[in-house]
Amino acid sequence: MADIYNLENPNKIKVLIFNHTKFRNRRVKSRPAQIGLNLANFFLSNFGQNFDVSHFYDLSRDQVTSELKIVADDGLKYSAVIICISSHGNLIVDEDGIFHEVIHAQDGFYYKTELWRHFHGKQDWNGKPKLFFIQACRGEDATAGVIMSHDACDAEETTPIFTDLTFPDLFIMNASQQGTVSWKCNNGDSLFVDALIKIFSEKSSQWDLMSMAVEISDRVAREHEVCTMMGADSKYNCCQQMPCFETTLTKRFYFPNATMETRLVNGNEFYRKIQKPLAIVLNYSYEGTNYPNNAAKARINKNAVKVGLTTAGFEYRKFWDVTKEDLPKVS
Hints:
By secondary structure, this protein is α/β, with parallel strands linked by helices.
């Protein structure tokens, strides 16, 4: 099928796991090694000879760069690359006032964009998927939740970050949304990585990557609302975590254990489980404001949007010129 990435030529996927646990900066807390180890064990035990797995502990910034460059220069050997990170995350502002998302290595931090920048312009990697799974904080805020479990977890506190995604054939999945913490439990495991391994183990023989990513996000958000031992006054008391992903993939990605038959029969199993989806469309004409009147154009666009969404099976609801105060009533 033309819309599926070909992983058979060559029949090998490179996996890099950067497991950052110890840091020279005393203000950066040490981390459990178990998260990266769980990922390494998963790929080694589930995919065997199809996967070339390298698991690195506590590399320096230069060592991370060196390993990335080696793989970037070896594109003929691999049909895809998967890079997993377990570390702390942060945000810096350079001298030009530009924000950069960073990941902590043993001796300092490196830009998150470094993870995929080395593959840019490499002809042997053209058209090949490059997947990134990142267990690191993305800020110090948290999403309020309700009490569903009583797992005592530790929040990794950093500051908000921003991602620059401009390269093709990338899939980047983060443990949390921008500006929020990610959680690791007292036993050293990660809510995000645990869900990722579980869903990949259960569904990779049938589902494509995007379907599994949605299921991972749903499972972490719905099943792992956490109550900390910080007390009821803590801003992290009974909060949720919401993984998110961004992608420039142009085809569907299936792991090698998914046969062509299961892809054709079960590829849309996840979507068949979902009841009729809802589409809420907000149209603004800007009448009575200083903005150019958009009423005529909005009416034309409204009909096209309605036809497209209803044809796709959505329940369609439209609202005109909703105010900020009335927006909660719509949702």
